Amino acid sequence: MITSFHGIIWTPALDKALDTLTETAKATGLVEPPYAELFRQTFPHLVRNIRPRLGKALRSLADFPNAEGRSPFDALLELNRLAHGSARDAKAVTEWLMAAFLGDVRENHPRMARPEEKSPCDCDISQQRKHWHNWVVALDDVDHPGGTEFLADLIAARERHAVQHPNDREAHDALLVVATSGRWHDDWGTAWLAPWKPASGAPAAVRPMADCEEASYEDWAHPAHGALDSPYYPVRISPQPIGRIARVLDSGALTPKVALAHRATGGLPAAVEQLAKRLRASDAREGDRDLLITDPLGEQDPCYRRLTELDLTEHLDGVHIDDFVTAAPFATAPWLIPDAAQSRIDQPHVGRILTELRTALWVTAKNSKGTTDDQAALHPWIAANLVSALARRGAGPTYTEQFMALRDDPDTAQDPVRLAYCNLALGDIGEVVTFFEREFNRIPHAEWVAKLELVLNAPDDLPPERDHGELYEELVNLDIARRPADRSEIRNNVARLIAAGWLTANPFAVRGQEQHRVIANAFAALATTSHQPDVGALVSAKEAARRGEFP
Q: For residue 262, what pLDDT band results from cuts at 50, 70 and 90?
């Protein structure tokens, strides 16, 4: 029947036969008169339009290796046999259908994607020259089963067509696939640097990922000399901007509660929605530290609840949220824990947890110079909830025990910046002040400020119900008690800077102008005692502190 239909050429004689058929159908009551008349009018147009397209579609089925030169009809039968017969071959069927799909795109795109004559469009090049519009396939969560497989099959089909038709200038169809993924895939790592890996030491052939705002066709299609071509172009989706967070919270963009939500969530939209109800009904008072840690109704620890809702254990059999909490010091450390250190950690699943957090794209490399090797950052929403849950957990390894394990590991102990980070997390502010006092006029100030900022982001297990002002005075007095005599002006200012900066860096703490003022004044005072030529680094840090941007 298909072959016969394919061979039809509409003639006046067929018009007469169609009239006879229609009148007979009406006379016998087989078809209602209106439907019979509609059929008589449309059937010739249907044949004229479908016949050539059906022919092309069948020829595209025959233009596949499995067809082995058969006729289009026999090729269709072979496809059916591979799909449903005794010799089923799902891979061959997928390849065949994907090739037919792309063939349809190549055939129909020039005709269907052409803009209407004289119609405007919003393309950047619309005023410069005539152009075509791509077809876009939007896919969400391709990390779910079948997603990356579909992309791989699509790319393989394109490459097969290019090999089989080397002289076809239109070998690559005009189909653009825009997909989101919550996980890193190994196929992307051939040409692209995984987001948690530092750029230093990466092979020249591997390119770093771009942020969404900086991505461009030119960046993808024309890699730098020596970089690999890739059918993929992974880009990072930007965090939710503070203006949008303000709209979610029904509050002004400059209010303390919006600033708190922005820092605590890292712009993660789902996290902002989680906090919306709590923050809309609350007044965020500058210096408060318990607004996001306690539940007003006294229910389950909100940190555990948030971690559970993130489905962190979905891809790890036998691992529970408590295991993630236990691993918090290693997961939140601002450097990549090396494999050798993972094997020395006396806790189960730590290595698997660190690998999972990276694969799930929660870890990002920080290519800062002069601080520590392999610097990286866990997403602030996960990091803050993990550490807060560990600090208040009743059973199991404690906050202090786990941070001591991180501190005492050889890879940490041999790096003075990492050691200072762990000492501050353990509350040993005197040791940290001593280190930064000693380094102040020994290294360039830009390097000193960078190291200080990394260390100040160490977590704390201080009581959340105590506000910033009270804890600040206590921390400064602890350093004075450690060294009551022969205190230099540098040490006094470094102590104030570290005490205020550490408390302010807590992403669950509400920042305020008084905190910013103390930090800025400490930088200003240190600038007057400098023996280094780059005092401008201290001035820049002072200005950043006044704007609430340090640390």
A: very high
